[in-house]
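Dear Dr. L.,

I hope this message finds you well. Following up on our conversation about the binding site, I have prepared a predicted three-dimensional model of the protein together with zinc ion. For your records, I am including the exact sequence and ligand specification that went into the calculation, followed by the structure tokens. Please feel free to forward this to your student if that is useful.
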Amino acid sequence: MPDQDRVRAETIERLQTIIRFDTTNPPGSELPLALYLEGSLKNEGVDTTLLTPEKNRAQLIARIRGNGNERPVILLAHMDVVGVQRASWTHDPFAADVDGGYLYGRGAIDDKGMLAANLMTMLLLKRELDRSGQKLSRDVVFVATCDEESGGEVGMGWLVENHRDLLDAEYALNEGGRTRIIDQGRCYLAVQAAEKISHVVTVTAHGSAGHAAVPLPDNSIARLGRAIAQLSNHVEPLLLTGLTRQFFSRLAEIWPNQVERTAMINLGDAHEARSADAGRILSQTPVFNAVLRNGISPTVIEGGKQFNVIPDTAGVVLNVRTLPGQSVNDVVGRLRAVITEPGVTVEVTQRGIEAPASDPSSSMFKAIADTAHELDPKIAVVPYLSTGVTDSARLRRLGIQAYGVLPFPMSQADEERMHGNDERIPIESLHFGVRLIHGAVARIAGARL
Ligand SMILES: [Zn+2]
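The resulting structure of the complex is given below.
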């Protein structure tokens, strides 16, 4: 067992170094950070490959070789971060200050904390293997990507396109889950095994163009207003997948709120009215609602250029997020049926790509759960369908069983600082995360520690 105090100090120091590289995307500029990671790994004898898809952009792949009995496991994290509103921060977002038990900085949660945990996992494994002389049952592959926050075209998209051979793996661990502290220190670890798919749907109202001095009954903006009113009253049907069933039934084991806990148990009950009632109760919480049905959010409104000209079209852009296996065409069909306003069209303008779900009873899932229980015997480990989109979808399309974990136990309030002001990670949670990733990877790669 490595000396936990030394590991703790090294983790903090490395995360601080990582945060101090300003990788705000755009423009990203991840190359200097990738060089730091490369140096840290090479220094201890780990093989690395540095790839540069664009000037000053980079991706780093590092590999600890196993005996090849099993297919590799990937540890994935992205190096770029979203921008900051500096004036709203109490700490310099790129200074990585430690204060009151927290480490502050842009990316501390998303995703540099995990990047540091993955780096530490590689270094700890390498040191243990060098010391004991044992061989892993599979390769452990560290992947640090660029450009995730802008959609990943230059990052994971580019890697899949150009270096697919380097991504050959059975399993992957990535961001996208949650380790949430809910009540009196009790925690649940939500391991993301699938994600919703994001599409863009445009609703356009058509009418006659004309001079605003002569009001027209088919004014496109007025039509659009009535159409939006109709579509916002529409609720997509509740859909229970195997994954959401497991999510709620396991969450019920530790959920503090009595009414919600009963609803979690009754959801999917053979008694139809009881199940429907449970769905109604859980749907009142927006995040639960989002995993129970396809989501429709109006996000952009377009129409008109000048105060005295009636435009012939006006439109609203909807971000539609479908559950895996659900068709966006069916959602559009239902929207067309509820919008009875004449002269209104509904079209899919950008189609997301379907990705299969990862198996919530695989050896990787079990390795994560077993390690979590070892660290915290009372933790509930639940498979989870995330409402957000991550690079894991690209890996699942390659046939890799990818799982999303945010391995750092956090309250909702701390977690909400992700992409916000004063992003910070509790030092204790950082250490828990390193032990969780290291333990799960050691397990799945057959290392005796
Ligand atoms: Zn992220």
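In brief: The chain has a mean pLDDT of 95.

With kind regards,
A. P.
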